[in-house]
Amino acid sequence: MVSPIVEAPAPTVSSTPGLLPPSRSQVSVRGVGKRFAARKGAAVVALEQVSLDILPGAFVSVVGPSGCGKSTLLLAIAGLERPTSGSIVVEGEEVKGPFPRMGIAFQRDSLLEWRTVLDNVLLQADLRGRSRSGYIERGRALLQMVGLEAFASHYPHELSGGMRQRVALCRALLHEPTLLLLDEPFGAVDALTREQLNVDVSGICEVSNVTTMLVTHDINEAVFMADAVVVMTSRPGTVAGIVEVDAPKPRTHGFRSDPAFLRAATAVRELLEATGGFRR
Amino acid sequence: MADVLSRSTETPSGPDEPVETPTRLRHVIQRGWVGQVGLVLVSVVAIVAIWELVVVVFSIPKFTLPAPVSVASTLFHSTGSISSDIAVTVEETIVGFAAAIVVGIPLAVAIASSRLVERLVYPMLVTSNAVPKIALAPVFIAWFGLGSVPRVVMAAMLALFPIVISTVVGLVGVDPALILLGRAADAGSSRIFRLIRLPAALPSILGGLKVGVTLALTGAVVGEFVGGNTGLGYVIEQAQGNLRMSLAFAAIVLLAVIGVVLFYLIDLLEHLFLHNRRKAS
Ligand SMILES: Nc1ncnc2c1ncn2[C@@H]1O[C@H](COP(=O)(O)OP(=O)(O)OP(=O)(O)O)[C@@H](O)[C@H]1O
Ligand SMILES: [Mg+2]
User: What is the mean pLDDT of residues A9-17?
Assistant: First the structure.
């Protein structure tokens, strides 16, 4: 079995034996660093020498201590934040701006309060300047997939937090992305809803065959949904190690008591502890 | 896979039930607006009652404070003869207010979207607002003559500041995550402005318009006090000079009515545009 991720400790492709050929990986991060110039005091080095490869169709979670640069890494892959060193290649092309077949969702659902649920999903087409008539059907199908078809003409303030997050997910998927980037999308919902969303999204990603990168603080969530969990060190963030989760997707609630799940979760915790992410 | 998907189907009795149905919500909001206008009428009646009571109890002379009844009778008999003055004041107010919108909103957009414009224009705006603009009325008359122009300029000047400030605040205060979302979808800044920034700023802009329209009326009346021979401001000045206090009060009541009507017209716009949004929590 080919591992869904291969860590590349060296900054260049050629110098690293055993690395996947770039044509095989969908996202290829090479020696990426990011420093933020500070107005006062020293510049903040958010990322240092981050390298990883994500294979098509893989679900990869990223965990690490707060402030270690997870969001920065996600935004760099999204083409919304320029790395100060290294390079990122998505589907064979160097990232210079937002990749057209990318979907993104953040911690806060960022729904537009003045648009109905369906119109919020269609915002994706509007923002891209595409005629929305070609997307209405897909928008409705996505809402049906997350069980919200009856709420298409409701307004966001009439929905619960979990429902809003599902709408944001439909919006991220409207244009049939091949790469889905999620930055703590379940951070603001309650634990029960969160576990349900984990199952839902695991299914949706599997059906839509979209490569997914999920940034999260929750180790259980990271392991539950992923083929592999990237563990980062505290700032400056770099890859501490990668824990693979060897179990079929999509995952269902029962997976939480599966030995494979428990093994991987323990491995992630041990890695965090060994690399200073957890204090002893 | 089907298993996963059917699991996520919403059940009506689940924890994700909507807070309210849209029809009910609309009903509540409409009733709310009608109720609000009703309350205004109640407070007007209360003021008139207190006014009448004060005049009668303290037997205040007619040329100091006329009783509501005599003001009402003056209103009834003179509204015809001062109808052209009413029209003049309303027109000056609306033209001045419109000018303030036409100048103020693009100016606010420029300030909100360019650091350079902000640094250049903002201090000027703040300084000019700090000058008591009423003191400028005689200057405007010297510049623009005795016609309606100085009054319109005065109305526009007074309305401009709140419109610019609230529009800038609205445009700048948009959730950065929304802008990031637009950029992620490769939308240019004009599309982000149209689809996200402007609608997000709308509540704040309408708030500025509410303040602005009342100030435009004030500006027009101040302009009429200072020069010219038309408008309700002029009527008040003349009536007071001739000791026709009931006419002066009739004009003041008319001004109040104009101000309230203009304010609630914008309030109505606000309810039409924003009724779907979450109430400020
Ligand atoms: N736009 C910015 N300007 C300056 N510094 C920034 C900026 N964005 C992030 N940083 C800094 O970079 C570091 C990493 O931030 P980032 O948001 O990527 O962390 P994170 O791992 O996502 O944290 P969390 O888990 O709390 O969301 C932090 O120290 C932060 O202060
Ligand atoms: Mg973050």
Answer: 33
Other beta carbons within 10 angstroms of residue B252's beta carbon come to 16
Degrees, nearest 5: CA angle B130-B168-B215: 50
Q: Which residue, chain included where needed, has tokens 């260049």?
A: A12
Orientation angle between helical segments A117-127 and A136-145, nearest 10 degrees = 130
CATH for B66-280, options being 3.20.140.10, 3.20.20.370, 2.30.29.30, 1.10.3720.10: 1.10.3720.10
Q: Write out the two tokens for A27.
A: 């996202």
Which is the closest atom of ligand 1 to the Cα of A217?
25
Which of A22-36, A68-82, A101-115 is the least confident region?
Answer: A22-36
Residue B36: phi, psi to the nearest 5? -60, -45
In this complex, which of B7, B20, B175 lies closest to A158 when CB atoms are compared?
A: B20
Compute the Cα dihedral for B136, B141, B144, B146 and give only its sign. positive
Half-sphere exposure of B210 (CA within 13 A, CB side): 16
In the chain, the amino acid numbered B37 is V
Q: Work out the end-to-end distance of chain A between its first and last CA atoms, rounded to an integer number of angstroms.
A: 35
For residue A73, CA distances in Å to A53, A87, A226, B222 come to 13, 12, 18, 60
Pocket of ligand 1 (CB under 6 A): A 36, 44, 46, 64, 66-72, 217, 235
Instruction: Enumerate residue ranges in chain B where pLDDT < 50.
Output: 1-20, 280-281
pLDDT in tens, A138-158: 999 999 988 899 999 999 999
Cα separation, B232 vs B249, whole angstroms: 11
The pLDDT tens digits for A127-137 are: 999 999 999 99
Residues 6+ apart with CB under 8 A from A245: A223, A226, A227, A228, A229, A260, A261, A264
A163: contact with B, CB 8 A cutoff: yes
**Domain residue spans of chain B:** 21-60, 66-280
